Amino acid sequence: MMPYTPLKLRVLALSYLTYLSFFVSREPYSLVKMTLLKTWTPFSEEDGWLTIGILDSAYLTAYAVGVFAVGCLCEQLDSLHILVTDCLASGLTTFLYGLADFWEVHNYWYFLTVRVANGFAEATGWPTLVTIMDFHFSAEPRSEFIMAAFGSCKFAGVMIGSILSSFNLSLGESDWGYPFIWCGLVVALMGVVDFFLLPSQPPSRKRASEATPLLKEQGNSSMKQTSEPKSETLASEANSATLASETTPNSETPGSQSNSATPGSEPNSETPGSEPNSETPGSEPNSATPGSEPNSATPGS
């Protein structure tokens, strides 16, 4: 039984070869330096080593900035699309550097611009490929071993690039552009192969990422449906309360009753403790006062 599926083995092989091709495309610069210092004009001048040093420093600065920028982009965009684009860009800039030999370009700014652009393009290899490898192998029990094996592509790329560049230089030092052209074609070709054969994510993870927006949309719709009855109930209760307050007479409106029904300020005829004289307890009229009947009905008279 194979420990890894054919898909994972394909991902490992293509990722290994892609990063190897980046190191292949970097080798011509180091091998052609001596030829440039001897035969090519901005480098064969008195301060040729300084010119080479400035180009290398510009390349490394662009590479450092590019690694950070591409690492941030990999969290937002598809890593495969970034990888393919920059494989083609790396191949193109390497190819342009070599074409200076055939186009008889001796402009210092041409070499500086191409070198900086190549640094940005080369910076994409590590962040994008590590992201793809992490998607496919992070859950594996031997993921550390896999990443260690993947890291060996650096040394393999240096060896292959050195052999390929040395073979082209052995044909003649005057044609120093051939190593750049052949090595640039290698990395560009790997970008095309990755576009058709390298999956950026496992199928299960891709299905889950596609289903996430649907789940969020369903959750929002269910929350909206549950909140609508509550809002309708509150609105109906508010409307019924408004109707009840409108139909209640002013005399019964709390806090705004008329003088005849205002608590604590009833009219004199009905005020407790101050009834009219005709019905006041203990002070009935003379005609009905107990013990003092009218003269016409007084007993004994």
Name the features.
0% strand; disordered C terminus; 301 residues; 10 helices; elongated; mainly alpha
Structure description:
The chain has 301 residues and is mostly helical. It contains ten helices and no strands. It has helices at residues 6-39, 41-44, 48-73, 79-103, 108-122, 125-137, 143-151, 153-170, 178-197, 203-247. The longest helix is centred in the last third of the chain and has 45 residues, at 203-247. The termini are far apart. The model is unreliable at 249-301 (pLDDT under 50).
Distance between the termini: 138 Å
What percent of residues are in strands?
Answer: under 5%
Which structural class do the helices and strands define? Answer: mainly alpha
CA radius of gyration: 47 Å
What best-fitting shape do the alpha-carbon axes yield?
elongated
Please bin the fraction of helical residues. Answer: 55-70%
Enumerate the spans where pLDDT stays under 50 for 5 or more consecutive residues.
249-301
The total count of strands amounts to: 0
Taking the sheet with the most strands, its summary is: none
Query: Helical element count?
Result: 10
Q: What is the chain-wise order of helices and strands?
A: HHHHHHHHHH
Mean pLDDT: 77
Short description:
With 301 residues, this protein is mainly α. The protein has helices spanning 6-39, 41-44, 48-73, 79-103, 108-122, 125-137, 143-151, 153-170, 178-197, 203-247. Helix 1 (6-39) packs antiparallel against helix 6 (125-137), helix 4 (79-103) packs antiparallel against helix 5 and helix 4 (79-103) packs antiparallel against helix 6.
